[in-house]
Each structure stands twice: as C-alpha cells, then as structure tokens.
Amino acid sequence: MKPLPIGVDDFEKLITKNYYYVDKTLFIKELLDKRGTVNLFTRPRRFGKTLNLSMLRYYFENTGVEEKNRKNRELFSGLAIEKAGEAYMKEVCCYPVIMVTLTSAKQRVYQEAMVCLQEALAEEYARHEKQVEGKLKNQGDWQKYMRIREQCGEDTDYLTSLAFLSKCLYQVYQKKIIILIDEYDVPLENAYFAGFYEEMVSFIRSLFESALKTNPYLEFAVATGCLRVSKEYIFTGLNNLRVYSVLNENYQEYFGFTKGEVQDMLEYYGRVKNLPVIQEWYDGYCFGSAEVYNPWSILNHMEDILTNQEAFPVPYWANTSSNSVVRDLVEKLGDDTGMLQEQLECLMNGGTIEKAVREDITYDAVYDHEDNLWNFLFFTGYLKKVSVRQEGNVPYVTLAVPNREVSYIYQYSIHSWFDKKQKNFDMLPFYTALEEGDTDKMEEEISGFLEQTISYFDYGESYYHGFLAGLLQRNGKYRILSNREAGLGRADLILKTPRIRKGRAVILELKAVKRFQDMEKGCREALMQIEKKEI
Hints:
By secondary structure, the chain is α/β, with parallel strands linked by helices. About 45% of the residues lie in helices and about 15% in strands. The chain has four domains: about 25-245, 3-Layer(aba) Sandwich (Rossmann fold), CATH 3.40.50; about 255-320, no CATH class; about 325-405, no CATH class; about 455-530, no CATH class. The chain has helices at about 10-15, 25-35, 50-60, 65-75, 80-85, 85-90, 110-125, 130, 140-150, 155-160, 160-175, 185-195, 195-215, 260-270, 275-280, 295-305, 325-330, 340-350, 370-380, 405-420, 430-435, 440-450, 460-470, 520-530; strands at about 40, 95-100, 175-180, 220-225, 240-245, 255-260, 285, 290-295, 355, 385-390, 395-400, 480-485, 490-495, 505-510. It has a five-stranded parallel beta sheet, with helices on both faces. A three-stranded antiparallel beta sheet has the order 6-8-7. It has a three-stranded antiparallel beta sheet with strand order 9-11-10. The longest helix has 19 residues, at about 405-420.
C-alpha cells in the first residue's frame, strides 16, 4: 500500500516517494486553456493550495539543467495532464518560475514579520543564484541581486523584489516569467490581529503591484489565499486579475477531494464501509457546484482507520489554523447581539441563514458589520453554501455548518465562552435554592442564566445536562457525577459530599418535553425513573 501524504506539500517528494496521489494535474490544462494573466484562488486553509502550486512549479519551470528538467518531466508520467495531449506537454519545463510562500510572516511585531518575508524572498533569490550569476547586463543589477540574496539590502530593495527577480531571470532565459505566490493573505491576517495592518498592507501592495501590474516580463501568475482582499487595498488598478472564489464554478474540483476521489481512496485501502462516517464528519463543502471533502482531515482519518477500522473520527482541522474569528463571533453574543445569537443557534441546530456575500472584504473590516463576520466565516470554510440567488448585483447565499468537524469548533468555542462567562455569575442563590428544595427560586435562577447564554443541540436533554453540569462545577461543596451507574440505572447528575455518614446527596434526572403542558408529566416520569431504578 502506498503511504498517505500527510503534510507532504512538495510535488516532487510526493511522486518520487510513491505516496498516494489524488491526481489534480488537469488544473494545469485549465490554466493553459483559459490563459488568465493573474489568477487568484481563494480556498480555506489545508485544502491543497500549496501542493498545487508546487505541482505548477515542477511542471513549468526550466531549471537551466537538462538532467533536472528531464526528471521533472518524468514526474508527470502517467498522470492526467500527460493523457490530455502533446499540446500541453510541450509546455513542460519551458519557463523561468518564481515561487514564494508567505506563511512564515506570523509574527508579533511588524519588524519580525518583515524579517520573515525578507527571508522568504532571499531564499527564492538563492534558488536562482547559479542561473543568474555572470549573466546580468550590468554590475549594479548583480550587486542589488546579492543584497537581497544576503538580506543586507535597504527596505526599498524588497518593495519591488519580485519584479526585479523577473527582470533578472528574463535576461538569462529570454522568456517571460511565471510567478506563484502561496498564501498571499497570511501576512495581512496576522498583521490585523497583531496590530500593524496598515504597515503590512503598504508593503504587500508595493510588492504585488510591481510584480503583477507593471511587470513587462510576466507570462502569468497564480496566487492562493484564504480570503480575497479588496483591489483598493492590494491590487490597485490591476485590471488583469481573475478571482476564483468558492462561489466560482471554474477550477471547482482542484482544491479539496471530490466524492469520487474519496471513494477511490477508500476502495484502494479497503475501507469502503467507513464512507458514511467520513461523509458526516468531513464532507459538506461546496466549491462552485462541486461537492468537496476536507483533504487534511480525510488523510489523517484514513491513517487512523488503517490501524483500527473502528477508530473514532477526530476534528483534525480544528488545530490547523487560527479559530479566533469563531471565538470572537461567540464572544460578541455578550454585546447585546440578540439577532447574532439567534442565527448562531439556528446554525448549531442544523438550520440555515441567508446573507449577502461580498468577496472583497478586508481583514480590518471583518468586525465593522455583522454581515462581514458571516462572510469571513463562509470564505474561510466555517460555513458552506447551500444555495445562492442574485438580487440586483448582490449574491445572497444560504449558509449552513458544513459537517460535524466544523460543528465541533463552534461547540468548543461556545463551551470556552460559557466557562468564562459563568465565572461572573453569582451562584450562591442557585446553590442555596438547590439545597433547600426551593424549586421556584431554582427556576428563577436557571432562567436568568439561560437568558445570558446560548443553547444548541436542538434544546434537548443533552444541552441542559451540559448546561447544569457547567453551573454546578463551581459549587466547592459537592462532587459531581455525570451519567454514572447508580442502583439499576444511570442518573443524569448526582451531587454528593465526600463524607457519607453525615453527608448529603442530590439527584438530578432531566427530561425534555415539547409542550409546556407536558412539564408536570415529564417531572413525574423523572421521579418514577429514580424510584424504579433505585438510584
């Protein structure tokens, strides 16, 4: 069996080490057919963007060394792009390629982020150094090249460093350049949350404008990111930009795994019977009109079920990127946002909401308006498209939570928020009422707490079970036992003091009813259950 490529985002390594590969090489064919000059693909984190750009580099790049070019051609032997015809294979190893990844710029302050960006640019200069050395037209260009290469240049050297590298490579190859930029918006996202957004926007704008707008040596460019950033901020005046978001039906099957690709993988590894669980946990995304699975989670779960076919699914994606925007959404519930709470409860209970979608929101505008927050959650993968309609020039998208994995992220954020919030509750009246059997006071206190929190799990028994367990955690007097065996059954919650002879126990049996008129009946059933089971 081929090994699973978990965390492998280098195309050459994936192929030469014989990892299992979900063939996405027809992405190359579509790029060549459409011939877009600057192509921006926005997809959630961990959906294969880096691997696809690596594939493009190995396909198009003329390394200047024929033996290396031959090996790169062989990487595509037997893959879909080779079968697409000779017209496409003629493009293999024909262009100088610049590829930079901006994921390293996740730093606390602007200066540190800039050092990381300069390192990324310097590494790309170093990769091309042997091809460029001795072939530039004047000594000044070589000196500037080496300043950037050695990271000892002026700040202004880096503002146009991608455009300058294009010029140098054109002089060497006499061929226009392909530029690949991976996770272009990571520095902007980090800068917003770290507090130096404007400074980073200024640098990225200059870097991209010179490389993508006014660059006479550019053949075409491909950039990937999680969120489209407004033209007014980054791509000012860039009329040749084509944006392919999750709403666009072009290139829809090249990021993430399709249903057929997941089924093929399960058949290869002999795990077809696991498909229903995989669908429930990791399916549910919709890019264009294509049904898409989360590839990071699929590969990780596949590894688990190869060891133990009954392995439980895990929210692997929850720890791969910042979930701060979900946390902030939940925390806004305490800021007099009743409608926000109602909509989040609807989503958590399996419902949908409809929102106008803007594809060009910026990180500094995410919290300006509630709709921007929902937009951000949609484009970053925390919500999925159910349907879309057009009203004037504005698309309205019906949104839902994609799957159980993403639902877990919301639930975890809500739990954390509630744990923090309940520390501010005055719990003494509730505890006193509980000990004294004052049901009217208990009802009053619990109702007050419920008004300040959010319910999910369809207002069912399991929600109130967790809610009450959370409230009782801080009592300091009783041990709390949840769903423990007692007598002939299990009690929902038991509170008991450590001392048995002179101690006290409180038994809570919960029942949920659909009508107010059935409340008394539900209570009688709970009491009868306690007696019958001898709890």
